């Protein structure tokens, strides 16, 4: 909204507070202190995004600002947890080359208008400030942010296969220095308010309640800027760029073209002519946006957004379903303690139950270390970590669980033991308490039919991945007995704790482990045939996997992997036959990293040399090995699709990328297989 028509005298304060329509995405008003405030508030949605219409409206607002001539201009948002979330992804993904070029230039031109305004400008940021939202803020003279947990700042475009192109690749290195800008843009990571302040990206951090008050004072203060001549001069730019490319090639093996383009554009844009740098941004995005990598990464982003909204049964009124607030975890091992820590970190009271005090104490120590790590990384303050730790109630006794809305069993992978645990839980919980198992492969339907089980409709699988604090995916495993109400309540809970759910059918190994296991088994069988562990792992790193299959087996634990494989073989036959080398290592109690030796020797937790001697003569080179092993995942994924284990190809691809790190730029096993065939 605008405070008065642009033809009216700019000095009439009373008239300037009278509002008239300007747009449906933002409004402009002039305060009594003669400060212009542009507030973004896209209707009908919880987020603000930039599409072409929003850029046009911002342009119109800037016209009004030039006419009204306020003393200063502040940008802010009316959304509770979002400043601006960036550009409309559909506009980028579905535009023709001509339209995309037009959109990039329009964004650059509008933000350059902000930078060129003959008055102080400031972005008052509360909530997520991402991509184009941060590029707008970078075009302002200053930035002030709230200290809220919801406030995060970043340029995640490289995670989508493109680079910041509305001035972000140019302005960020000039603001915080080339090395820091490259680190932020290449990683796509989001910074908390305090970290952004330390990086020099924002000028002040204040409580949310004081944000606008502080902004109105700060906007008239001259910004203090640190010079970056040492890192941003032409000689340093070339050196830093070369070193960054070298490190990047070692890490990504050339698989992500957006990262290489980002190094080039950001390094060259750290100083020099703005217009030329904007041109490099534009040309890079036009080249990248039509590549398969960007298409796959943008698709995966959309699938993540869909997972946050997926409904299992749309006929149910979700508002009528009870919310999960009180929780318990049975089993205080690696997974149990990790789940309990995550629940408490999200503000949920959780009982951590195990058979004796010693086991519970070990679990509590694991939780304490996880919180120490979060404090060390700046994710939580010491006070926040202590408060969250206080939400965990350790118990070595069979306490009442009547108040619990959800109990997660994370005990040993033994079906008979789990049956006894669930029968016991049925007698100590309410009939509507959801009973979930974190098993990675065992048939959950058999738990529902075990002796002593009451209300089997409330039993469900809730399969977290290790480490819980880092892995976003959770498989929600639905049995023939599970009620739709329980599924919907579980989905809501998974989203509430910041995880991404994928609904799968109860079947041995469920979805992710079933698709992954033939790949891991065949890697072991290649070792049996004389291929070296290092060659196999290097082949899959070249393919784009975050870790080779044999290193992954060592990380999981060879004993654990063997147990899962036995379960799978009983269900599916010989294609899950254990490799001889795996049997041999397990019998020798070489379980991988946790025992100090598996396929590799581990010193201080790091893999050194392979332990398995192999023949030097092999039939396949790296590319052929990768194609062969990835092809097994694709084949099993298609079987899961045919059997209805996953809902559709999108869910299966999404689960494999999020649950195993299947090369994201390849789109998932089914998408990759369709392209190669």
Distinctive features:
677 residues, alpha/beta, 2-enoyl-CoA Hydratase, Chain A, domain 1, Rossmann fold, N-(1-d-carboxylethyl)-l-norvaline Dehydrogenase, domain 2, 3 domains, eight-stranded mixed β-sheet, 28 helices, globular
Notes on the protein architecture:
This protein is α/β, with parallel strands linked by helices. The protein has 3 domains: 13-290, Alpha-Beta Complex (2-enoyl-CoA Hydratase, Chain A, domain 1), CATH 3.90.226.10; 318-505, 3-Layer(aba) Sandwich (Rossmann fold); 512-676, Orthogonal Bundle (N-(1-d-carboxylethyl)-l-norvaline Dehydrogenase, domain 2), CATH 1.10.1040. Residues 1-22 have low confidence and may be disordered.
Counted by DSSP, the helix tally is 28
Radius of gyration from CA coordinates: 27 Å
Summed up, the domain count is 3
Report low-confidence residues grouped into runs of 5 or more. 1-22
Q: For the report, how would you describe the main beta sheet?
A: 8 strands, mixed
Q: Residue-averaged pLDDT, rounded?
A: 93
């Amino acid at each position: 909204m605008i405070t008065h028509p642009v033809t009216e005298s700019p000095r009439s304060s009373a008239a300037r507070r009278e509002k008239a329509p300007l747009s449906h995405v933002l409004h402009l008003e002039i305060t009594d202190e003669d400060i212009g405030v542009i507030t973004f508030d896209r209707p009908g949605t919880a987020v603000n995004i930039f599409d072409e219409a929003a850029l046009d409206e911002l342009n119109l607002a800037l016209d009004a600002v030039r006419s009204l001539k306020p003393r200063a201009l502040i940008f802010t948002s009316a959304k509770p947890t979002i400043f601006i979330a960036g550009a409309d992804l559909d506009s980028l993904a579905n535009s023709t080359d001509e339209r995309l070029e037009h959109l990039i230039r329009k964004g650059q031109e509008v933000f350059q208008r902000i930078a060129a305004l003959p008055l102080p400008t400031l972005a008052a940021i509360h909530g997520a400030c991402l991509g184009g939202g941060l590029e707008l803020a970078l075009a302002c003279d200053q930035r002030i942010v709230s200290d809220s947990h919801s406030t995060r700042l970043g340029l995640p475009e490289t995670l989508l296969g493109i680079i910041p192109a509305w001035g972000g690749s140019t302005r960020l290195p000039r603001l915080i220095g080339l090395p820091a800008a490259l680190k932020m843009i290449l990683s796509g990571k989001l910074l908390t308010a305090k970290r952004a302040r330390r990086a020099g990206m924002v000028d002040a951090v204040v409580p949310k309640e004081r944000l606008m008050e502080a902004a109105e004072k700060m906007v008239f203060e001259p910004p203090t800027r640190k010079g970056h001549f040492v890192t941003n001069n032409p000689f340093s730019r070339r050196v830093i760029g070369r070193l960054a490319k070298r490190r990047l090639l070692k890490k990504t093996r050339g698989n992500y073209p957006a990262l290489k383009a980002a190094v080039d554009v950001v390094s060259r844009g750290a100083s020099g002519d703005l217009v030329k740098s904007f041109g490099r941004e534009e040309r890079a995005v036009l080249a990248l946006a039509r590549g398969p990598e960007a298409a796959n990464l943008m698709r995966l982003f959309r699938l993540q957004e869909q997972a946050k909204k997926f409904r299992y049964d749309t006929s149910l009124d979700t508002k009528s379903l009870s919310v999960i607030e009180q929780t318990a975890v049975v089993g205080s091992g690696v997974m149990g303690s990790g789940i309990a820590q995550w629940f408490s970190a999200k503000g949920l009271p959780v009982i951590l139950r195990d058979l004796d005090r010693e086991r519970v104490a070990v679990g509590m120590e694991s939780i304490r270390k996880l919180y120490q790590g979060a404090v060390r990384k700046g994710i939580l303050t010491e006070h926040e970590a202590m408060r969250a730790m206080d939400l965990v109630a350790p118990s070595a006794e069979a306490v009442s669980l009547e108040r619990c809305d959800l109990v997660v069993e994370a005990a040993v992978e033994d079906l008979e033991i789990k049956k006894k645990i669930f029968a016991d839980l049925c007698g100590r919980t309410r009939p509507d308490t959801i009973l979930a198992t974190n098993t990675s492969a065992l048939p959950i339907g058999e738990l529902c039919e075990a002796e002593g089980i009451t209300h089997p409709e409330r039993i469900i699988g809730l399969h977290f991945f290790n480490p819980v604090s880092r892995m976003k995916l959770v498989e929600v495993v639905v049995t023939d007995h599970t009620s739709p109400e329980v599924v919907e309540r579980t989905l809501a809970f998974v989203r509430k704790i910041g995880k991404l759910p994928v609904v799968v059918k109860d079947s041995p190994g469920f979805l992710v482990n079933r698709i992954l296991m033939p790949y891991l088994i065949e890697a072991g069988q290649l070792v049996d045939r004389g291929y070296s562990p290092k060659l196999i792992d290097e082949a899959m790193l070249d393919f784009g996997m975050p870790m080779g299959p044999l290193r992954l087996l060592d990380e999981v634990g060879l004993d654990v992997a063997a147990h899962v494989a036995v379960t799978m073989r009983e269900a599916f036959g010989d294609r899950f036959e254990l490799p001889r080398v795996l049997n041999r290592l397990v019998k020798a109690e070489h379980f991988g990293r946790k025992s100090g030796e598996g396929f590799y020797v581990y010193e201080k937790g790091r893999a050194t040399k392979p332990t398995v001697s192999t023949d030097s003569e092999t039939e396949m080179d790296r590319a052929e090995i990768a194609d062969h092993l990835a092809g097994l995942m694709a084949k099993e994924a298609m079987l899961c699709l045919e059997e209805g284990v996953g809902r559709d190809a999108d869910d299966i691809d999404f689960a494999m990328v999020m649950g195993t790190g299947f090369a994201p730029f390849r789109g998932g096993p089914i998408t990759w297989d369709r392209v190669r065939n």
